[in-house]
């Protein structure tokens, strides 16, 4: 897997595509809110969004994918549903915002599909990568933050704030362990794009590290 920024090939752009990744309960939402607020204070034109569910259609897809009663969803169906959510999201929200020169912060993107479906669901990294490149027209983030938290710690955090797990959160420990391992592998594959941060550190410290990277790219 070659590490290239396809969008940068097109020429000059002030836009920036930033994604946050991690196991369940890794603290992505807190960091996204902090980054979003910080950029707004700096008068940066910024959009914060999420997958699955960053569009009206995506919200419906999210409801189906995460519904614990749909136990029979095949791994391939699951993969295609995440891909459908992403296609709508990329063409309705992400690309228009990037084309308008905005900063886009996205809660999960291609690395989630590589880790969850490619590895933990055994679809295969290559198949997921090919599908993703086809549906997104080769869009990769400029910068990805991987918040590393042991999956058991993350699940405990989720348990403390929610009445019940969704379909993915409710998977077996071995599933979450594989997702965690897959993220580590991805960080090794893409060392320039993926910045690994300790998700057990204080939120303010993590935010500081995030801002250092983002400021470097914003120039
Ligand atoms: P969230 O709880 O972070 O909003 O994510 C929803 C769930 O969807 C989470 O369990 C991770 C999972 N997911 C995938 O399995 N594949 C994907 O491509 C994406 C975007 C999310």
Can you offer a commentary on this structure?
By secondary structure, this protein is of the alpha/beta class. It has a single domain, classed as Rossmann fold (3-Layer(aba) Sandwich). 53% of the residues lie in helices and 12% in strands. The chain is built from 8 helices and 5 strands; from the N terminus they run E-H-E-H-H-E-H-H-E-H-H-E-H. The chain has helices at 28-41, 56-66, 75-99, 110-120, 125-136, 151-161, 173-189, 203-218; strands at residues 16-21, 46-50, 103-107, 143-148, 194-198. Strands 2-3-1-4-5 form a 5-stranded parallel β-sheet, sandwiched between helices. The longest helix has 25 residues, at 75-99. The two termini are 28 Å apart. The structure holds thymidine-5'-phosphate. Residues 24, 50-52, 82, 107-108, 112-113, 116-117, 168-169 line the site of thymidine-5'-phosphate.
Condensed summary:
Helix content is 53%, strand content 12%. The protein is of the alpha/beta class and 219 residues long. It has one domain (6-218): P-loop containing nucleotide triphosphate hydrolases (Rossmann fold).
Radius of gyration: 16 Å
CATH topology: Rossmann fold
**How many structural domains are formed by the residues?**
1
Oligomer: single chain
Write out the strand line-up for the largest beta sheet, numbering strands in chain order: 2-3-1-4-5
Give the H and E element order: EHEHHEHHEHHEH
Structural class: alpha/beta
The CATH homologous superfamily name equals P-loop containing nucleotide triphosphate hydrolases
Principal-axis shape equals globular
């Amino acid at each position: 897997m070659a590490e290239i920024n396809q969008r940068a090939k097109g020429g000059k752009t002030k836009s920036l595509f930033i994604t946050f990744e991690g196991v369940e309960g890794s603290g992505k939402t807190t960091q996204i809110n902090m980054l979003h607020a910080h950029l707004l204070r700096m008068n940066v034109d910024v959009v914060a969004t999420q997958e699955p569910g960053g569009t009206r259609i995506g919200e419906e897809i999210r409801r189906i994918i995460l519904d614990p009663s749909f136990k029979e969803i095949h791994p391939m169906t699951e993969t295609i549903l995440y891909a459908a959510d992403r296609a709508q999201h990329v063409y309705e929200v992400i690309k228009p915002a990037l084309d308008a020169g905005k900063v886009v912060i996205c809660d999960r993107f291609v690395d989630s599909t590589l880790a969850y479906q490619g590895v933990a669901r055994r679809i295969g990294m290559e198949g997921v990568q090919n599908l993703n490149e086809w549906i997104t027209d080769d869009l990769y983030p400029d910068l990805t933050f991987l918040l590393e938290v042991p999956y058991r710690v993350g699940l405990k955090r989720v348990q403390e704030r929610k009445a019940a797990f969704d379909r993915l959160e409710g998977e077996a420990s071995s599933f979450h362990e594989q997702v965690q391992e897959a993220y580590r592998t991805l960080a090794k594959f893409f060392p320039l794009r993926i910045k690994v941060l300790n998700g057990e550190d204080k939120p303010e410290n993590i935010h500081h590290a995030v801002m250092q990277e983002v400021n470097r790219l914003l120039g």
